[in-house]
């Protein structure tokens, strides 16, 4: 009798659960997960390297609409497109969605970087990083960055008739990162960091199959070497601080100096190392790609070039010989930054990103199940002609009135509480570099060059340009 009573009690519950399960299954977004484990990963990576990733995603939107399911990097994934999708991704408070990088990125950069942290851990570490990267703090480093740019141009550009822009910009941004983040000056140690670092980032967007001689395997080995070098650097910085060194000399010293209520170090060694590596990657790739495409666009658009040159010449004329740029000088570079933002709109260094659902989410009439990846792509709204008129046209005037741009449509640095903390550093690097390039040189492209995404947009030949020093034109 008890068994029958229990059965009669459980049957309606079981029926409701099965009904709900079938209902959720029917409400999953359209699309196919593809081949097990691989899914659409190789197809997307090939499209990125062929510079057809936007078209690849546009075809998905045409076939399935603004929300569709697929499988990327071994995870069930939902691709979202449009302003509403960007708002969902960027406006949350972390209660229903968290940052989720691919397994390859997580294993290479570590699990204590901002991309992986959530809740109070994310807030604590982000606050520590922002204490160094906020504008009020970066003001004191403008001269230091200016010195790095001047030295780089003197050593790598002056006296050259032809240069390849991208590899030189990568070296410049790496040198700036080494100076500001590590306090490591030029020399063999910087060169060793660069060697391991370049191998580390080569396999960040790859299928995480750890077999010998694969890009992923080589990246993991290089990551271990970088982390070992950073551990040694942390030891040295602690000793320097004990001897009275300034906590503002570099990012590592700043993070080591942040203390809790009981005078304990608030940020762990792993958190410092993993986040320094994250900022290394972000600073090395994003700023160098942005500056490279600015050089490319200025070469093709004489009107914009002349407007930038006029603004920068006025600033240069206000300086005495050898006088370093200041924060106040950067504030005068308004048109130059509008031009940079238009470059970011057309060629965003970050193609997209991933989030992970921590509960079921209803969006666009579908269920995105708990534990699934959400994939979003920056360029999709940037090149939407319903948002930006004639999106293929390079027009810095779009940013005369930024308030007129609909929210969650221009997102090169992300948004919300996870907006890139290095935004201001990227801005400073870019403005200082462009100032010196346009006031010292005139250039033209050596060839019509295509580019691919790997995953950043990369000119196939590194963007070779022919240089003419300004003094030879006068």
UniProtKB/TrEMBL annotation:
Family per similarity comment: Belongs to the cytochrome P450 family.
Pfam families, sorted: p450 (PF00067)
Main location: membrane
Cofactor(s) required for function per UniProt: heme
Entry keyword annotation includes Membrane: yes
Entry protein name: Cytochrome P450
Localization annotation: Membrane
Listed SUPFAM superfamilies: Cytochrome P450 (SSF48264)
Keyword Magnesium: no
Membrane topology field: Single-pass membrane protein
Gene3D superfamilies: Cytochrome P450
GO molecular function: metal ion binding; oxidoreductase activity, acting on paired donors, with incorporation or reduction of molecular oxygen, reduced flavin or flavoprotein as one donor, and incorporation of one atom of oxygen
GO cellular component, one term: membrane
Signal peptide: 1-18
Keywords (A to Z) from UniProt: Heme, Iron, Membrane, Metal-binding, Monooxygenase, Oxidoreductase, Signal, Transmembrane, Transmembrane helix
Positions with a binding annotation for heme: 420
């Amino acid at each position: 009798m008890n068994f029958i009573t229990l059965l009669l009690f459980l049957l309606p519950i079981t029926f409701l659960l099965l009904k709900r399960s079938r209902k959720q299954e029917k409400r999953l977004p359209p699309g196919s997960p593809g081949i097990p484990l691989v899914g659409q990963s190789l197809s997307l990576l090939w499209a990125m390297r062929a510079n057809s990733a936007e078209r690849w995603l546009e075809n998905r939107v045409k076939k399935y609409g603004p929300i569709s399911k697929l499988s990327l990097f071994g995870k069930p994934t939902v691709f979202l497109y449009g302003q509403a999708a960007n708002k969902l991704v960027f406006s949350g408070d972390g209660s229903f969605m968290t940052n989720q990088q691919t397994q390859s990125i997580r294993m290479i950069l570590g699990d204590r970087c901002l991309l992986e942290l959530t809740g109070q851990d994310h807030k604590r570490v982000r606050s520590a990083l922002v204490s160094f990267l906020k504008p009020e703090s970066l003001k004191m480093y403008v001269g230091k960055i200016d010195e790095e740019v001047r030295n780089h141009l003197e050593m790598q550009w002056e006296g050259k008739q032809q240069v390849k822009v991208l590899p030189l910009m990568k070296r410049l941004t790496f040198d700036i990162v080494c100076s500001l983040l590590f306090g490591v000056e030029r020399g063999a140690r910087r060169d060793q960091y660069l060697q391991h670092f370049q191998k580390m980032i080569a396999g960040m967007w790859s299928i995480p199959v750890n077999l010998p001689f694969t890009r992923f395997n080589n990246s993991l080995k290089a990551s271990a070497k970088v982390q070992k070098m950073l551990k040694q650097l942390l030891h040295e910085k602690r000793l320097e601080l004990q001897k009275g060194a300034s906590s503002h000399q570099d990012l590592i010293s700043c993070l080591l100096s942040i203390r809790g209520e009981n005078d304990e170090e608030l940020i762990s060694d792993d958190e410092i190392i993993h986040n320094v590596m994250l900022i290394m990657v972000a600073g090395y790739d994003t700023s160098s790609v942005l500056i490279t495409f600015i050089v490319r666009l200025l070469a093709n658009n004489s009107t914009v070039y002349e407007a930038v040159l006029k603004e920068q010449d006025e600033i240069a004329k206000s300086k005495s010989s050898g006088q370093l740029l200041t924060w106040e000088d950067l504030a005068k570079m308004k048109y130059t930054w509008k031009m940079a933002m238009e470059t970011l709109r057309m060629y965003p260094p970050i193609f997209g990103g991933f989030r992970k659902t921590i509960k079921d989410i209803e969006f666009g009439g579908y269920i995105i199940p708990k534990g699934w990846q959400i994939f979003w792509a920056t360029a999709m709204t940037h090149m939407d002609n319903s948002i930006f008129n004639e999106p293929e046209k390079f027009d810095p005037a779009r940013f005369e009135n930024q308030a007129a741009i609909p929210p969650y449509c221009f997102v090169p640095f992300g948004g919300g509480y996870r907006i890139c903390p290095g935004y201001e550093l990227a801005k400073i690097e870019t403005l200082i570099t462009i100032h010196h390039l346009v006031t010292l040189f005139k250039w033209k492209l050596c060839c019509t060059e295509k580019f691919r995404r790997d995953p950043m947009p990369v000119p196939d030949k590194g963007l070779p340009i022919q240089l003419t020093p300004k003094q030879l034109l006068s």
